[in-house]
Design a protein that fits this description.
The protein is an alpha+beta fold and 307 residues long. The protein has two domains: 3-128, 2-Layer Sandwich (D-amino Acid Aminotransferase, Chain A, domain 1); 139-292, D-amino Acid Aminotransferase, subunit A, domain 2 (D-amino Acid Aminotransferase, Chain A, domain 2, Alpha-Beta Barrel), CATH 3.20.10. It is built from seven helices and 17 strands. The strands form two sheets. Strands 8, 9, 10, 11, 12, 13, 14, 15 and 16 form a nine-stranded mixed beta sheet that branches. Helix 4 (164-176) links the parallel strand 8 (139-147) and strand 9 (181-185). Helix 2 packs across helix 3 (78-91). 43% of the residues are buried. The structure holds pyridoxal-5'-phosphate (PLP).
């Protein structure tokens, strides 16, 4: 058991120790993957003695959208979700970098893989989390042999738990073949995203990312970086991206709550640019870390202090 197993989670409408939040093995979501989730990071700032949550309202807005796609009831407003989250962190006296996992799951003990008329529930827990992937050394990445699930199969827009089998297949294949992460192509052969993060390229000073019709999750980090690029007057193209554009890019990086902003050194054995972190990537990465840790006043509206 870990320390955080003793801290509170939110389960069946109450705060209880994480270790006591257990589900019946007949639970619909366990049997069929009928759940959707979010992932929110909190950054502890030692100087300010505060924990800052990045774009919490946007994360709960997306959770509600996922729920709508999966025909789930969300009994709480965004404000109520936010309040539960702040209470959970305060009750747990969290004073370190934290990852929050809110999720809605079909909690009925029923057979039949369907969405309608199956009871659902909300739960939330927190764990400590450092880097998910290295953000500093440059990642070695491959294009996956697994195709990204499309909107008419399991919608990636919904951040649906069952869809992460697709991610797991690609991630394991990549790791077992000596890479650190995988890039998916979509069912049209265009570049989609990483197994659990969005993807950006830079070509000739233009920041490029696949559009929302390329079977991506509509990432909140992605949206934030596009906004930063706009504010820095970096030209942006949001459009279909070909596989070979990856190979000839000057810069490439992943972006997401887990991965943060992590630059890519190599894709399918082609070194990206000069094999070092690119200038646009570095500027966006530095600014991102300033913002999320509460050190950039211009974007303080994106963060919520816990204390
Ligand atoms: C498949 C996938 N794409 C993209 C992202 C990035 O989204 P966000 O920036 O909202 O965390 C995530 C995870 O967070 C993800 O699981």
């Amino acid at each position: 058991m870990t320390d955080y197993d003793l801290k509170p989670c939110y389960f069946e409408g109450k705060f209880i120790p994480l270790k006591d939040a257990n589900l019946n093995i007949r639970t619909h979501a366990l049997q069929y993957g009928t759940a959707c989730f979010g992932g929110i990071r909190g950054y502890w700032n030692e100087n300010k003695q505060n924990l800052f949550l990045f774009r919490i309202e946007d994360h709960y807005k997306r959770l509600k959208q996922s729920a709508k796609i999966l025909q789930m009831q969300t009994n709480y407003s965004i404000e109520e979700y936010k309040d539960i989250t702040l209470q959970l962190l305060q009750k747990g006296h969290w004073k370190e970098n934290v990852y929050l996992r809110p999720f809605l799951y079909k909690s009925a003990l029923e057979l039949s893989p369907r969405l309608h008329n199956v009871q659902d529930s909300f739960a939330l827990y927190a764990i400590p989390l450092g880097d998910y992937l290295d953000t500093q050394k440059g990642l070695k990445v491959c294009v996956s042999s697994w195709i990204r699930i499309s909107d008419n199969q399991i919608p990636t827009r919904a951040k649906a738990n069952g869809g992460y089998i697709n991610s797991a297949l690609a991630k394991s294949e990549a790791l077992q073949n000596g890479y650190e992460e995988a890039i998916f192509l979509d069912s049209h052969g265009n570049v989609s995203e990483g197994s659990a993060e969005n993807l950006f390229l830079v070509r000739d000073g233009v920041l490029i990312t696949p559009d929302v019709s390329s079977s991506i999750l509509e990432g909140i980090t992605r949206r934030s970086l596009l906004q930063l690029a706009k504010d820095f007057q970096i030209p942006i193209e949001v459009r279909p991206v070909d596989r070979t554009e990856l190979y000839v890019a000057d810069e490439a990086f992943f972006a997401g709550t887990g991965v943060q902003v992590a630059w890519i050194r190599e894709i399918d054995h082609r070194i990206i640019g000069n094999g070092k972190i690119g200038t646009i990537t570095k500027k966006l990465q530095d600014t991102f870390f300033e913002i999320v840790t509460g050190e950039n006043d211009a974007y303080s509206h994106w963060i919520t202090p816990v204390y």
